[in-house]
Amino acid sequence: MLFRSSRFLNRFFPQAGNIYRLVTLKSEHGFPITSYLASFTAYTYIERTLTLFLGFIVILIFEPGLKIAGYPASLLLGVLLLLAILAIATLAFVVTRFRDSIKNLGTWIERPFQIATSLIKCLQAPGLFTLVILPGIFMFIISLAMNWLLFAEMDSSLGLGKIAVLHVAKSLSHVVALTP
Question: 74 phi and psi, to 5 degrees?
Fold first, then answer.
C-alpha cells in the first residue's frame, strides 16, 4: 500500500511520494530519517553509476568511434564514471578518517555525516548485487532493446551506442529533481 500510494502521489506532485514514504516509515514504523535518506541515496548512486558503466561498455563494443560534441563518447562517459567512483571513494575516506572528530561539531554537520556513514554501509551490504545491481542490468538491457525496437520501427538507423548514450543522458537527467 505504501509503495502504491507514494507512486500515485509522485504522478501529480514531484517528490511528494518520497516525502509520504519517509513520513509513513518514520511515524508508523520508527524508521530513522537518516537511514531512509542514506538508502535512497545509495540506490540512486548505484543505479546511475551502473547505467554509466553499462553505457560505457555498450559504446566500446558497438560504436567505439561515436563522438559527442567532437569528443569520443567513451571518453566522456569514462570521465563521468571516474568522477562518480572518486566521489564515493572520497566520501568513504572522509567518513572513516574523521569519524570521531565530526561528532563534536554539532547536529548541523553530524546529520549529513550520519547519512554519509549509512550510505557507505548500504554500499557494502552483502545483498547489494541481487537487490540492486542485477535488476539494474536487466532494466538497462530491456530499455536498450525497447528503444532499439522503437527507433527501428520508425526506420531510424540509430546504433546501440547512440541509444545507450540517450539512455544514460535520460537516467542522469533524473539525478537532480527540479521541483517547483
Answer: -65, -35
- Cell of residue 70, nine digits: 567532437
Lookup: cell for 131: 537487490
Specify whether the CB–CB gap between 84 and 54 falls below 8 A: no
pLDDT one-digit tens code per residue, 68-95 = 999 999 999 999 999 998 988 888 787 7
Report angle CA 176, 85, 143 to the nearest 5 degrees. Answer: 60
The most distant pair of C-alpha atoms in the chain lies apart, rounded to whole Å, by: 63
User: How does residue 132 score in pLDDT terms, banded at 50, 70 and 90?
Assistant: confident
Measure CA 53 to chain center: 12
Q: Compute the residue count for the chain.
A: 180
Q: Using an 8 Å Cβ cutoff, are 119 and 91 in contact?
A: yes
